[in-house]
Amino acid sequence: MSREAPARIAVFASGQGSNFTALLEAEREGRLGKARIVLFVSDRPEAPAGRRAEEAGVPTLLLRPKDFSDRGEYEAAIVEELQRQGIDLIVLAGYMRLITPVLLSPFAGRILNIHPSLLPAFPGKDAIGQALAYGVKLTGVTVHIVDGGMDTGPVVAQRAVEVLETDDAASLAQRIHAAEHELYAKVVAAWSEGRIELDGRQAKTGGL
């Protein structure tokens, strides 16, 4: 089902924010469909991604988990702001925290994550290192819907990246990041235009 109004997007990040920066660039260039990035959220106020948001004029919500009594209270504060802002979709872009039901429930099916492997292979931390250690010839990137597990939600789109015999973690990461930046913008654009349909674990995108 196509959308009429622009989709209001909140991007979550904890670190450098390279995927966030790529999404901002895609929006500037008209490659983000009907999506509009209207909020940046981080659990690390000192993270470079926060500075990128400020430079781009994106409103920010910077909350330290240690300032709250528990994860539930921390996420409840986030949910309150997301609902106040009328957020349609949450895009995780290097957000280094597991999502709890407090945030997941009101946004079920509306949280995207990107992971640097072809899930279900190499979930969790250091997926690039895992791929190199295992000796695979192909790895890649996966965009998936977030559920209650770690990198276990329904796959929306994937891109394969060849692992070269000369690769180390840095060289492989460079090509994986390039694939991430291209694919994530396409998925967000497709979601904003109502071109992604979820049937159980099967995501129909019309080809991305």
How would you portray this structure in words?
The chain has a single domain (7-203), classed as Formyl transferase, N-terminal domain (Rossmann fold, 3-Layer(aba) Sandwich), CATH 3.40.50. Strand 4, helix 4 (101-104) and strand 5 (111-115) form a beta-alpha-beta unit. The strands form 2 sheets. A 7-stranded mixed sheet has the order 3-2-1-4-5-6-7, with helices on both faces. It has helices spanning 18-28, 48-56, 71-84, 101-104, 127-134, 169-192, and strands at 7-12, 35-42, 60-62, 89-92, 111-115, 138-145, 155-162, 197-199, 202-204. 34% of the residues lie in helices and 23% in strands. The chain starts with 6 loop residues before the first strand and ends with a strand. The chain is built from 6 helices and 9 strands. By secondary structure, the chain is of the alpha/beta class. Helix 1 (18-28) runs parallel beside helix 2 and helix 1 packs across helix 6.
- Order of helices and strands, N to C? EHEHEHEHEHEEHEE
Query: Can you count the beta strands?
Result: 9
- In the CATH hierarchy, what is the architecture at level 2? 3-Layer(aba) Sandwich
What structural category do the secondary elements indicate? alpha/beta
Helix content: 25-40%
Let me know the largest β-sheet. Answer: 7 strands, mixed
Number of domains: 1
Q: Radius of gyration, rounded?
A: 17 Å
In spatial order, strands of the major sheet run 3-2-1-4-5-6-7
Mean pLDDT metric: 95
GO molecular function, one term: phosphoribosylglycinamide formyltransferase activity
Active site: 115 (proton donor)
Keywords: Purine biosynthesis, Transferase
Binding site for (6R)-10-formyltetrahydrofolate: 71, 96-99, 113
